[in-house]
Design goal:
Blueprint lengths: L1 H13 L1 H14 L12 E3 L9 H13 L3 H4 L3 H8 L15 H13 L5 E5 L7 H18 L2 E5 L3 H7 L3 E5 L2 E6 L1 H6 L4 H6 L4 E7 L7 E7 L2 E7 L8 E6 L4 E3 L10 E12 L2 E8 L2 E8 L10 E6 L5 E4 L6
Parallel strand pairs: 1-2, 2-3
Antiparallel strand pairs: 4-5, 6-7, 6-9, 7-8, 9-15, 10-14, 11-12, 11-14, 12-13
Amino acid sequence: MNLLARWLADRHARDPKFKQIIQRARRQGSQSRRRSQLQRRAGRVFYSARPVRLRQDHDFALRGRIGAAAGRKDPAARPNCLRFVGLGGLENRPATQLSGGQQQRVALARALVKEPDLLLLDEPLSNLDTKLRERMRSELKRLQRELGITTVYVTHDQMEGVLLSDRIAVMNGGRILQLGRPGEIYDQPNSQFVADFMGATNLLSGTLRTEVHAAAVELVDTDIGPILCSFAGRMACGSQVVISVRPENIKIAKESRLEDNNIIDGRVKERSYYMGLVEYTIDVRGRELKVRAAADSADINGNSAVRLRLAPEKCVAIAAQEGFR
């Protein structure tokens, strides 16, 4: 991913058409003050700490970007950026006397102080504690929207990607497997890798009963019984598929009707508290399914018999990938 960030920065510097696309996106997305196009480049977050005071560090960033006069024209930029990353009042402290997390925030402020057209962030919050990480995440999104900076944010944290992004590109082996909005990527993955990578999911293998000609709901035979699934497009009869259904999309049915679809009986094996929810491990015909429900489901304990409802539109059928488990 570091290679991707370097490639984007290099292309932004060398390719005028690529730079125009980024600048056009910035102008369309923000009404913030304009500066000469020659003054704009890519801001990158890197983690080396210079043995100088933070104010000098940001002077250096500004001089390397838009000339020595910039620091005098906008002296408020330095402390504002430092306050944004939680380092206000430390302007005169050498960066090498900061903790690892503080040095990482210095790197972020160093990139933001230049107000670049393209901001490249390679897991900039990875070394921060949970509370600071949450605050920085929301502040970073707010700042990005206010300044209209096109931002490429590289992360292995799926929640972070979903919360911060307007669009997500899921990559594997240097290839983009799926590109789309966060909800689309999470709810409608186009491959087993994307379904598994984007968060906890239940993957069930099965065989399609009938040919699918377009987006539709059709039956798939699985080892826990026939399941109505959602298909995104054409697929031949007899195709081997994998069904992805997220734990929060499996409901514990207190009662059911004869006409209900995808009703499955199982037995609770494990029950654990999960951040305001209860996560269950349900045994269904020898197969374990993960289910997340509201914490008020206190009447369901270990070894209880339960009835599960899987909404067909939430059971996403994907062509099986050979060698993927």
